[in-house]
Amino acid sequence: MSYDGFLPFISAQLQYLLNHYPHTIQIEQARSGTRYFPGSLDRFTLLIPYCQDHMKWDVIYNAEFPLAAPDVIFGAEDEDFHPFHVVCGEDGDSRLVKNSLTDWNNKDPTRLLALVIELRDKYRSYQEKRVGEVDDDRLKFEISTIVSREGIEMHMSSGFEKPEEVKFAVPLMDMNINKMVSACPWRHPQKIYLQVIYPVDGMCMAEYLPHLEELLQRLVIEAVTLIDVRRQFIEALAPLLGRPLEADPVFCRKASFLVCSGPFTFMLHVFLSTNFPKQQPSLMLQSTQHFNSLGMPVKSPLITEYPWSPRWETSQMADRISDFLVDESLNFKRHCNESHLQY
Amino acid sequence: MADLPFQKITISGPTLSALMHRIATSLGDVDGLLFGHVTRLTPSTLTDDNTPQNPDSDLVATITSFFCPNIPLSFYDSLGRVDSVTLHRLVSSTTHQSNSSSSSSNFLGWFSARRKSPIRPSMREFCVSQSLSRLKTAAKGDKDLNPCVFLLFTTPVHGEMLYHTHEYRAYQFQVNSRCFEPKTIAIDNIGPDFRGNYGCFSPNSPFPELKCASAMNDEVGEDLNRMERVSKDQKELDMVAQGFCVGDLGKLMGSETVNSTMSLEDLYEKMLGKLDNLARQVEKSNAKVLEMENHNRKLRYKIARPVPE
What we know:
The complex is a heterodimer of chains A (about 350) and B (about 300).
Chain A: H1 8-20, E1 26-31, E2 43-50, E3 53-60, E4 71-73, H2 111-132, H3 137-146, E5 153-157, E6 165-172, H4 177-180, E7 192-198, H5 205-241, E8 246-247, E9 254-261, E10 264-271, E11 282-291, E12 297-299, H6 314-341
Antiparallel strand pairs in A: 1-2, 2-3, 3-4, 5-6, 6-7, 8-9, 9-10, 10-11, 11-12
Chain B: E1 6-12, H1 13-25, E2 30-40, E3 59-67, H2 84-97, E4 106-114, H3 123-133, E5 149-154, E6 167-174, E7 179-183, E8 185-188, H4 212-215, H5 223-238, H6 260-304
Family (chain A): Belongs to the BABAM2 family.
InterPro entries (chain A): BRE (IPR010358)
Protein name (chain A): BRISC and BRCA1-A complex member 2
């Protein structure tokens, strides 16, 4: 995302927001409200994740009056959402209110982030209150069993054309997945949510969630263990084929080796599925010496059929692939020469 | 306090076009105050239908003028809290300027104009309207009426849709339910259909009543008193005509009426000259205002943009 065109102070606040917000925020429809400088962008739409969906909020700065705090326009469905409505008495004077818009300072890059976080928190309470007011025994019971979960989000949609429905995003498992995967690339904590849309029939959540979480927990642990199995396999290939040229260090789904068969040198790409070792790796050979008419290196088709057993030891798997390559490299060399001769 | 819902909000064509011109020529987003009056419609048709009609819905708010300070947050803060002192200053200065018949220029509400944004009241606009609705100093004539009118002007988010350059909506802020109630806008134009709205309009400009003109011929009377009166009258005459001497008014009556045609023509010419001069002054001051606005803008940009290193 480029911040070109925004006024410097808006750009700084946006950049800070995108880099520090705990979830992924998107910016859409950057535009300008000025008469003479349509190039200086000062308003945009933020796509803020909420309850497994997105809210579209328009943030309106004023390029002509940069010292003024921005204004926000909420979605068309949320016309009753008034986060900062005046709660004081008759005199209309409420100097004690304190929130992220009071004492606005356009030079402070953290302000927009603070505003978005505060508004989203207020939006969550607003939706919780709306859902709480729905007169439905089943729903009330369900809420009572899950409301204590930290990070739960609720949403009640009530458009003119849509039927009324209540949505939940229930965070599952109190597990730090980021810590389980070493050198993970995620900036934000990985969380798994269950989306429930009411009205539903059948099992209640209190009954369903423990089973679901147990199952998920098993799946996550298994998936994390499988990363290590894949890593060991790639490491086992190294003594036979040499150190990989390139390998996916986090999830170990891909590795490339430089292999020689006499004077013929080619690259071997190994692709590992999440079902490895049940599913054997797919192989692809790529010549370093032969090119097609477009100047692209000649590649073999994806090879998925060769001797394999998931019950073999890791070292045996590597050995068998190495053995298979002895013959396959000759086939590939012939294939390369043939396609090369055609041009 | 009970909300009295309006049946509709009307605005005269010239006021709306002046407002739109102001908005279209503004540098950025602007807002301002709306003035006008509230009238009760008298049912024009009598029917035998006995269905009870909503007794509250016969109120019509008519917007007759506006005031645009040309800076945002002029009478409220970033949270939308109205600064009652500033508001009072703006409202009273505007209502004093207009005709003394204050009934035609009550403070009705406010407007907000922002480019390229959705046509829905924003977070701050709601707060401002809510804050205004708590003010007791609303329209003087109608005890129960708050400055509850809100006009919203926007331009489409996608600028390519040039065949639809602007949108506007009118709302009435409901105190009890704390929400904006959309209202229809009716535009009053000049024509037989709108005669009722212009009934009290008189196209005459009053000429100042000058005492000395009649007393001029009385040679008696103290000189000092007379001179004082003459200079006072001359000042009043200068308001409508440029360079016409009070003494010459005498030529329009009495024994000297023989040459009155020429004198009268002279008076008209000088009155026109006055208008010309006023127009020139307006033009000059407009240029000055523009110059100052540009200067202010440069200062604001200086604040917003960090100094290049």
